[in-house]
Design goal:
This protein has 184 residues and is of the alpha+beta class. It has five helices and eight strands. About 12% of the residues have low confidence.
Length: 184
Amino acid sequence: MTTSMRKVAWCIQALLLCLAVGAKPAAALDALAWLDPPFPVPETPYLVEGGGTGTLADYRGKAIVLNFWATWCPPCIEEMPSLDRLAARHAGDHLAVITMAADRASEEKIKAFHDEHELLHLTIQRDPDMKLARAMRLFGLPTTFLIDHRGDVVAQLVGEAQWDGDEALAVILPLVEAAAADAP
């Protein structure tokens, strides 16, 4: 299978999973899978706002909520406000909330999306060639990974969730506390 065919097949698979997952309500974290063993974050570069590149290693020392989404994915769009509220209330020295656009939308289109949905606390990060998505073993959209401050992927959830709700905070805040405890 050619690279183009693989990309088309992956996109179709992601769309179907996105649509299937989108039929479920977004509150419970029942589908959160703790990884045993965790795996280290890949150092695959992605595009950042303003035209530069970054890697997840740039966030070493912080707990990370890494959400892969797309502008065309209804459940992704539904959960974005909760990620924005999570970033507004808890992002800082020991937590990073990263929303990684896994589609080919331009920075300008994503900026317009942020403006339209009043997402004020999320930065624009893009993985248009899905290199990071493949390295992270992404299966569908939306998918959120929880990464500890040492750079290990410790959990993942395929599907939509309420990331600023009590159930999610009960999972996220201990990772943040561990990052703060180990900070110099």
